[in-house]
Amino acid sequence: MENPGTEALVIKDLRKGYGPLEVLSGISFSVARGELVCILGPSGCGKTTILRIAAGLIPFDSGEVVINGEDIGKNRNGLRNVSVVFQEPRLLPWRNARKNVQLSLELRKDSHGEEGTAEVDSALELVGLSDFAGSYPHELSGGMKQRVALARAIVTEPEILFMDEPLTGLDMRNREELQDEIVRIWSNKKVSLLLVTHDPAEAIHMADRIIVLSGRPTRIKSIIGVKSPRPRPRDSSEVRELEKTIRGLFAGESIGESPPR
Length: 261
What we know:
alpha/beta; about 30% helix; globular; 7 helices; 4-stranded antiparallel β-sheet
């Protein structure tokens, strides 16, 4: 069913706590259809909590989360049009790459048997792993495992893709390659994408807009639009100036360092 409106995700006055600890204090932002938005903030500020709430994985205390016009607070079983890529690939070690990607289709109630083989092969081709479809997780590098996880997320053709620091722990070469791959796939699939990162340079390189968060209790410090056309050079004066501006927002707070080049 086609959903009206231009916003894929709308979050209004979102609040979440754990016992007496207030984590999120009135978070409000939106993601337009086809937009790539990054959430950036200090370690432990609640970035992942926002993403998991938006993806329907954990409950929230108050506020509103609307996906494609549907209030997920009222219908938590209706999120069949979203996929999540976690920080760890979470591949099943007894399944090869093709079978790990196939799992997403198997878990759908309308999937039967070997249906979706063409879609699985297409997803693996899109992430550059056609030649490794028969390889098992222990035979793959860290970057390749994360590509399998990405293929598993996109094979169901989600309208919204959530990514929780998916490049953490990769070396610089793999990290930059996958940044570009994610942007390419996002553009190819025309999916709405919300990505959590601790790296200002990564957010600037990838995002249309950056949601800059404070420390706990977490509020939005700033929403910054990135106007530079893609593909974006990583060391231009414009990028360096924007990173300086973002880091200036975190005076007195710890923000992740960009990996050394």
